[in-house]
Sequence to fold (265 residues):
Amino acid sequence: MRHALETGCLISGILCLFYYTGIVLYAGITTSFAWSWLCGGAAMIVLRIALWYQKQHPHLWLRCLTGAASMLIMVAFVVILVVGSRIVGAMHTVPQENLDYVIVLGAQVRGTSPSLSLKKRLERAAEYAEENPGTIFILSGGQGPDEGISEAECMYQYLVTAGVPEDRLIKEDASTSTRENLTFSAEIIRGLAKDEEQSVPDTDADAGISVAILSNNFHIYRALLLAEQIGFTNASGIPADSVWFMQPHNILREICAVLVMRFSH
Fold:
């Protein structure tokens, strides 16, 4: 058991450091949360060295320290496995057909062009729009300090160019987070429903309105959790593709975000 733990720590540490290097080379050193792989890899290698040292110098305090660190890593592994499996499960959601509304979540805009993540969302949105001609799209995303136009405007221009009629696209350009994306989009949907003289209670389900959230596949699980918190009781997901190399990083970041969200409410 001890030998397996030592070997696992060494292999895991090396893999984490190699993956961190890959992230930096692919996406840049400023990539959000990339430091977690560097810190994780270093921690695993330090633990491997501590386990070896403790075997050579069997002090009680050192045995307690390495034992506690090993237990912490095992608990973290179980948490990652449980939450990660739910995220991966949501990545394979089969979208419902003929939805009333689809909320397309914004992502970074580079100048006036969509980033790769946003482009994949828009490709999926254009595909769904072609297959379901009655669906209205809420394009949700404000403008960051390093963006030439708002994410909503970028999405609008892309989808119009892709052939989606303008009267099926509604821009929500005030939001700065996923929670605001969903909150502001919900207000738009309820306002539209009232304009159509529908009886609209506090939740979309009671109003008989079908809504889906479109985002990159790794983001669907957390987006649906947030949607439930703000009042969407029957929202579904439409997963878009992601860059395969960044998927482990994206999933780890989502796991941490889900845990923070759970413990902060």
